[in-house]
Structure formats: structure tokens, C-alpha cells
Amino acid sequence: MAAGLAYWADSYLVLDQTSNEFVANGSSDINKEIFDDIRNFCIEKDYKSPNAANIHARIKAISQSEFAVLFMTIGKISKNTGLDKIAVQCLKLYLNTRDFTILHCVTSCHALRIIFEFLDKEQQNEAVLYYWQSVIFAYISIETPKIKPIETIDLGVTSNVQKIKDVVKNNFNDHDIKIAFTAIEEFVFYKDDRFLKAAL
Predict the structure, then answer these.
(1) Contact in structure between 79 and 182 (CB atoms under 8 Å)
(2) Cα-Cα end-to-end distance for the chain
(3) Could you state, in order of their start, the residue ranges of all structural domains in the chain?
(4) pTM value?
(5) Residues 6 or more apart from 88 whose CB is under 8 A from it?
(6) 53-103: pLDDT as tens digits
(7) What values do phi and psi take at 78, rounded to 5?
């Protein structure tokens, strides 16, 4: 964990501070149309994700684009918005796309939850704000696909924890292992069995 935090401290992206603020007196819920709003804005402005070598380079380019402030403005959340709401949004993105970049949204949201207990309330609020902005940029980086409401996604039969462990114990792909571990941990913490679907 120390190595991971040191990497974060060395590699974070500085965003336009004027847009790093919450919606005043807003609901704790995240706008259900948020991804549609961002998608429509990108279509209107004919904005395409930069053609870059890796995830970090794409997101860095998006964060430094002329539209970065507007992206953050469209995606603003309330100070009352908890990490639990963002975790579900990350899950929704992943269940819709199964995208490698979005996989990291799910796993990193879990990682942020783990370190939350070491942060005071003000630091937690700041972490939620910046983290949510990174999720928005990650969504833009995969060309803003159409995202269905999580309630309408056909999840099929949800596997139990033991079945997931049995499947993954002979898997040597570190990302498969990481998403399976995260799915189980988030299911246990949030009591939401939809997270288990991310493991399959």
C-alpha cells in the first residue's frame, strides 16, 4: 500500500482548480442522465478521445483539453454524495462496457474505500470530488459509449462468492484476480449482489 500511495503522490494530474467544487446544497444522488449528458456534449462538440499510448496518457490529454472544465461542470456532484454512489456508477459503467479502463475504475474505487478510514471528513470530501472527476475522464477516454441504467441490465443469474473463488483460483491473470477480489469485497461491504456480476 505504501508503494501505491507513493506512486499516486508522484503521478497525480493537476486539474483546473476553478471547477473543483461541489454543487451547492445538492442531492446526494448522482444525476441519472450524467453519462448521457457527457456523451451528448462530446457528440455536439465532435470531441474524440485522444489517440494516446496508454490510459494515463489519454486521461492526461483529456484533463488538459479545452473542454476539461466543461466536462467537470457537467459532472458536478454534491458534497453529500458518498463514495457508495460513485461505486455504483463505476459498476454500471463496467457492466455496460466490460472495458479494461473502466475495470480500473471499479478496482480503484474499492482501493479508495480502503484508505478512507485514514482520512478526515474534509479529506474524504476532497477525495470523492477528485475521484469522481477521474471517472468522468475515464468514461470520455473510451469514447462515451451509450450506458444503460443499471436497473435495466440483464445480469442473469448472480453467482455466489464460493463459485467465483473456485473459478478464479486457477486464473493467473492479475486483472481477472483483482476484479474478482474487488467484486467480492464490494458485495460484502455494500450488500449489493450486482457487484458479484463484475467478477464474471
Answers:
(1) no
(2) 26
(3) 31-151, 154-200
(4) 0.88
(5) 150, 192
(6) 888 899 989 998 999 989 999 999 998 899 999 999 999 999 999 999 999
(7) -90, 155
